[in-house]
């Protein structure tokens, strides 16, 4: 009896599409699949190795001897080797023994394997992705949760360090154990989605998952494919979306991986100027090779299809798009037009997004891209790259640079927080405070903030207020929500014991309330990607480091106003408002329950004077280093007047006669005795900034 029987899962159409770079379901064909041939149960194997002389399946079942179970090369010169081995079933460990054209014998893990061994050998396992899902309700309504008009607050986490076994800090929690703690935590905190750093198989833990060898295999450190599916299923059942980090930008040079797969540079470019990444010591995919393109797009579709992922965050897109990324002059090859854009990678990304949104129109693709490459989130048919969103790296850098400044110096950096509004709507952005900002000596979020402990927490609460009330989507890395003091350590749990301290618990409560505010107030998300949803009220009061802006929903009454006081002073601040509107404070980051000083943010007076080019004004008591959110409540008369005012503005009419343009002033407020001691040392630290505030000149 033959130990390998001829068998195929490929049709001629499959092979044609594969070789054209247009087959996006290769995981149904390549790899190992349970089958019955000639009344015998066993496993079908298929692998692409066009330059191999011989391909065998090796494992415990044949003593790891090559040449015993030889696969058959297809007749069509596709480079596909395939065959059926009777008797092999789930759990069998195997590799491919590939005899190269030079006579070398390479032992390679299956590029399409669904599971890998977690040891030095890192062999593949015959496995399955069968799972009994019960997330139908989530999947049916997912389009609503992933809409650009829906709130999107993402919690980024690393499964190996979010939480570990309390009995043994060296031991990982399993996917199922993580589900027990993570699901209720995310639900209570109000995040809409989680983003898992790479869950694909990788041998090197310090890579954080970004050096992938098993692109179709769930990380076996935490359990089986079904265990990961259980975690995702539980998140879905509790109304929480799941975004997966996906890494098509490079792969490591491990001997059992994709590098030099059949004795040639099959998946990567042969020329190191195109195929090797000097910064990461890894290999770059050959995006111009159709079979490689089919492999990568099939991999993206696999995680959306088999694992019900709700989105993919595509890592290191900048490194893909630029031929000279991390290279000096003479270390890269220009494209056919003499430029530095990788045209093959650009085409690949366009094909990727086209394929994903064709089959999964209700998911999100998100680009981590740090340059100003144009039209990244514009549709492919309009000449764009087709991503759903892009990380707003410029906002992140400007914001952190501003908040690191001592409040006395912030007036010199005032435009750091206003400049992002100049390009806010060029792309569909997501504001990230990610893992990259709390490693490699950059300090934790709380220790980026200036001042003593009280000031640090006050600054961070103010930063989060700014972040959550600005238009784009949000992303916060684990630990940032409660003020993790140390930098992120991939091999250790977060310091959950910090929540025993009032200031950390207060910050966590504040982030929770911010999330729920963001989800409840339509003004904060309905028009988050449209200019009509944002309006500056005061963008130029740099002397006082005050920022005021409106957020607007689709309905006329859906309006909120955010006031940021980014100095340690207490003001009575005059703010222009529309006629016929009432305002109420709905969030104060300086509230004592969050660890604040307890200065009550409240409207202490209303005036009929025109102010800030608006017909009326309110006087708001502003706490120190705080963000205050107010909600508009319009009277019926106010609605009519506001509509008339809007009509006049559209017609180009000037403000009513007799009313002068506003000049912004800020008066020192009387501080209640019980809070005087708390803020006195802040005033002292501010030095000259604590002196009497001089009114701005009238513009």
Automatic annotation (TrEMBL):
Pathway: Glycan biosynthesis; glycogen biosynthesis. The active site is at 315 (nucleophile), 368 (proton donor). GO terms for cellular component: cytosol. GO terms for molecular function: 1,4-alpha-glucan branching enzyme activity; cation binding; hydrolase activity, hydrolyzing O-glycosyl compounds. The keyword Transferase applies. Residues 156-518 form the Glycosyl hydrolase family 13 catalytic domain. Monomer. This is 1,4-alpha-glucan branching enzyme GlgB. It comes from Chryseobacterium taklimakanense. The lineage of its organism: Bacteria, Pseudomonadati, Bacteroidota, Flavobacteriia, Flavobacteriales. The gene is glgB.
